[in-house]
Amino acid sequence: MTAVNPYVRSQLRHRRRRAVAVVAAVALGAALLIALTSLGSGFREAARAPLAGIAADLVVTRPDEGTPSEQPGRGVRQPFGLATFDSGEVRQMDTVPGVDTAVGSLQIWDFGPRSTITIAGVDPTQRAVGPGRILHHDLIAGRSFRSGEQGVAVLDRHYAAFYDTKVGQRVTVGERSYSVVGVVEVKDSAQTAASNIYLPLAEAQRLAGLPADRVNQVHVQVGNSADTEAVTAHITDRVGRVSAITPDSLVQIMGAVGRISARFSTIAAVVGGIGGLVLSWTALRGLVSERTREIGLLMAVGWRRSHVVGVFRAEALALGLAGAAVGIVLGVALAGLLSYIPAPDLLPAPPSVAGHGEAPAAESDGLPVSVSLTAVGAAALVSVVGATGAGILAARRATRLKPARSLVSL
Q1: Distance between CA atoms of 232 and 237, rounded to whole angstroms?
Q2: Measured in whole angstroms, how far is the alpha carbon of residue 192 from the centre of its chain?
Q3: pLDDT tens digit string along 350-409?
Q4: Residue 179 is inside which H or E element, if any?
Q5: How does strand 197-200 pair with strand 243-245?
Q6: 375: which of 37, 132, 368, 408 fits an S-S bond (Cβ 3.0–4.6 Å)?
């Protein structure tokens, strides 16, 4: 009917308050879907971040189940509660189905009279995974270690700045002096391998009084990140009980909000979208109900039921498109605001940062929230289809009344 489009335009123009209510309801559902989906993706990315910079999917350690031994109050020692792996066990991890690479490293602490520093022993030949990747990719001054090199060290940028130490100078660890050959900036995406000082693995083993084949951390790269739990189980079968840092375990550290957002963001987004649809259905039903007399008059003068439903379908489609557009803009804006939420500190800072005030901690970045085209498309589809469907259902319900009854209804 040629009168349909002018009629729809006139209704939208003269019933602005009701139209705005429908658009707001649709927009709310679309915005919630986008914002909640983006929040979930942000928590998932935050959980992956501490491992992403070292190209690892899990960091494996072995809890020390033996009787605590007498430890000196000062000097170099292993972190409390950690036992070691030998080179044979690292090779066993490397051959686990699904594992691409397993690289061992050694973390030790140096308890000094005024501060405690962390030292990482790094295999100079391993640059693809683990702390060796940091020394290869994130240097800001100098160079990394050469194979077989001794008596050298690379410093973390904050540590070097705090102690005003530059490339070419020397640093003392325990009772040994090392030449500084490089300075590295450890980014948030590599926090699982953060240390104050990096030494060649053989140097760190000698410093800690350990055999040459001993490490206490193994950085594992998995072919498919979804297989991390299965890989951890296989590693446990081969080398005994281990503790593994994985993205899932980091999500657990985030607490209830992080777990819900990361694991159930899709469900939460769908619930938000449904809530918006319910509101839009309520508004559209009210829009149709207040025009019951009008519908009866149209049908009395010869309009068919399909014509009336077509009018409301076109009207609901227009309102749904407007609501989707507003909701997408609002959802993207909300996601942008969510990115200012500080990303959770999933890993403890090195001792010199954590408890002794000897080095500045890195600033915490915001939550890595991003808006995906999938979320935007889903929000638009749900908004338009939902609003149009709600308008059609409401109109069909109204047109079931006989014209005479519609004319006398309030």
Answers
A1: 9
A2: 16
A3: 444 344 434 444 445 677 778 888 888 888 888 888 878 877 777 776 666 555 454 555
A4: strand 176-184
A5: unpaired
A6: 37
